[in-house]
Design a protein that fits this description.
Structural class: alpha+beta
Number of strands: 13
Number of helices: 21
Number of domains: 2
Length: 550
């Protein structure tokens, strides 16, 4: 067998054994994809001990390709929501993430400045201390550009692997310390979070009401919706014995029964304007005549079109009750622009809805198919973008986004925009998840196999103990400072705070720990709100640290 074949076989062995290792839970916590890294380290050590040689070019290619595939797919996943995450408390959450990144970078620079370790070890330690695989990839790339030998660059992988598991444990210990310090009652925190959630993200519900206010007699539906800023939709109407799908020029009359659809928080407003009739269910009563249909946007030329344009183009005897995007319901305001894959919920008779179906596409085949041409075009643009040098005052060497930052930022922008002309950058979620998982397995597997020879001698030495201790400082100091400030002085919800801190270190196992403790989506929301920013900042800061200390 050739060394290339042996290398591929070893990767397969690393992959399936690492996936199994990563799935093992201890007190509900697992290391996930990190298991592939440790499986690779173990196998790499035994291969070296038995003089088995792996093909270095194959290792290098698979490592780089895996990193690019993971980063680009991750960017496409988080891109559509990256700006919406800045709304409401998202601004505070991302400010927390920024503070954690800045403080951690300062601590890392201090450690490097006083000469506690060489630059390659520091880059790996920083990446492992924040469990950021993309940062490791970006750091190794900048080290190679600075002229460090492959053996030196490989040291970063070893210190990364040393810091990675310790970081998970230390982060959970910080959360436990904060809980004890501030005497947190989890039940109270859950109740407070659910109340705040209901206030900020009202659930969309249907309200059956009777028009009993004479002031609304003769008022057009469109005028009424404008009065309430299109915060609700009138999806059905009953007048006498007739069920009607109202349009904007339909006039209201006293005695009409309406089905209003909108946020639950509008119940008090609705009860003032109309007589709420909780015993009626207009949706069930009219089911034989009027149906609710889900229509998916799959025609490229409809992407970016506002709802008012669609309602002007298609003669309609139907009403849009809401638009669902990435699992979140949006009120059908006239200026709401459609994105590829949006689910438009339409109420009307099947024969009347059919023209809209043809107009929007509603092709499940198109929705579930993978657009490989746009995918690889975007990836190529990301790689080329990463090669562009940026000259920063004070740095002797230009900084490049590299094969980590370039594909990431490109994917974020392309997925947020949705399209470039007729090119649609939509990729099914299930495909993106597969690409992400495969990419990270490739990268970590190759890193482990190439670094295994020197890992165990290092971790068992006094030098290894020192490195682990310094890694703990990089992890703990930012979390403690920010955590104490936000909980002690800003009184931030404990669950949301812990989720945000987990996202600030891209530490999924620690977020899982909080999720298992409380059982609400507070921690996942905090984690996902800051993840895109954190991911980007870690890739950039690790390069800045390397350039500043070189």
């Amino acid at each position: 067998m050739t060394t290339t074949v042996i290398t591929i076989l070893c990767f397969c062995l690393t992959a399936f054994s690492g996936i199994f290792l990563g799935s093992v839970k201890v007190r509900g916590i697992s290391i996930g994809s990190g298991g592939v890294l440790f499986a690779g380290l173990i196998l790499g050590y035994f291969l070296n001990a038995n003089d088995v040689v792996l093909e270095p070019n194959t290792l290098g290619f698979l490592r780089e390709f895996g990193l690019i595939l993971f980063i680009y797919s991750m960017g496409l996943t988080v891109g559509p929501n990256i700006f919406s995450s800045l709304k409401r408390n998202g601004i505070v959450m991302n400010a927390i993430a920024l503070a954690v990144v800045v403080i951690g970078s300062i601590v890392t620079c201090v450690i490097g400045k006083f000469g506690f370790m060489d630059l390659s070890q520091l880059v790996g330690l920083y990446s492992g201390a924040v469990t950021s695989t993309p940062a490791l990839g970006a750091g190794q790339q900048i080290l190679a550009e600075l002229g460090l030998t492959p053996d030196k660059v490989a040291q970063s992988s070893m210190t990364y692997a040393m810091a990675y598991p310790i970081t998970i444990v230390c982060t959970i210990c910080v959360f436990a310390f904060l809980k004890s310090l501030f005497r947190v009652n989890i039940t109270d925190e859950v109740a407070a979070y659910e109340y705040q959630k209901a206030e900020e993200n009202p659930h969309m519900e249907g309200f059956n009401v009777v028009v009993n206010n004479p002031n609304f007699n003769g008022i057009e539906v469109g005028h009424f919706l404008k009065m309430i800023h299109y915060s609700m939709a009138v999806s059905r109407m009953k007048r006498g014995d007739e069920y009607i799908v109202p349009h904007e020029h339909t006039t209201l009359q006293v005695g009409d029964v309406l089905l209003l659809f909108g946020p639950k928080t509008f119940f008090s407003t609705v009860s003032i304007l109309f007589q709420v009739d909780p015993k009626r269910d207009l949706m069930k009563e009219s089911a034989e005549q009027i149906q609710s249909s889900n229509i998916y946007v799959t025609k490229p030329k409809r992407v970016g079109k506002p709802l008012k344009k669609i309602m002007g183009d298609v003669r309609h005897h139907w009403v849009i009750s809401r638009v669902i995007r990435n699992g979140i319901s949006h009120s059908p305001t006239p200026d709401l622009k459609l994105a590829y894959g949006d689910c438009v919920v339409v109420v009307g008779k099947a024969v009347d809805v059919l023209p809209l179906v043809r107009y929007l596409g509603n092709s499940r085949e198109a929705l579930n198919s993978t657009r490989f041409v746009p995918f690889f075009i975007g990836m190529m643009l990301g790689i080329l973008f990463g090669l562009i040098p940026f000259h920063i005052p004070g740095l002797s060497t230009p900084i490049r986004l590299g094969t980590s930052g370039g594909p990431l930022l490109t994917a974020l922008l392309l997925s947020y925009r949705g399209s470039l002309g007729r090119i649609i950058f939509y990729t099914p979620t299930i495909v993106l998840n597969a690409f992400k998982d495969f990419g990270i397995i490739l990268f970590l597997g190759m890193v482990g196999l190439s670094s295994g020879a020197g890992f165990f001698p290092l971790v068992s030495s006094m030098e290894g103990v020192k490195l682990i201790g310094l890694g703990v400082l990089i992890t703990v100091i930012p979390l403690l400072l920010v955590g104490i400030f936000m909980r002690g002085y800003k009184k931030m919800n404990y669950l949301t705070l812990c989720g945000t801190l987990s996202g600030s270190t891209t530490n999924l196992p620690s977020m899982t720990f909080i999720l298992n403790m409380a059982g609400t989506d507070a921690a996942p929301l905090g984690y996902s709100s800051v993840y895109p920013l954190t991911l980007t900042l870690r890739i950039l800061t690790v390069q800045a640290i390397a350039l500043a200390l070189f």
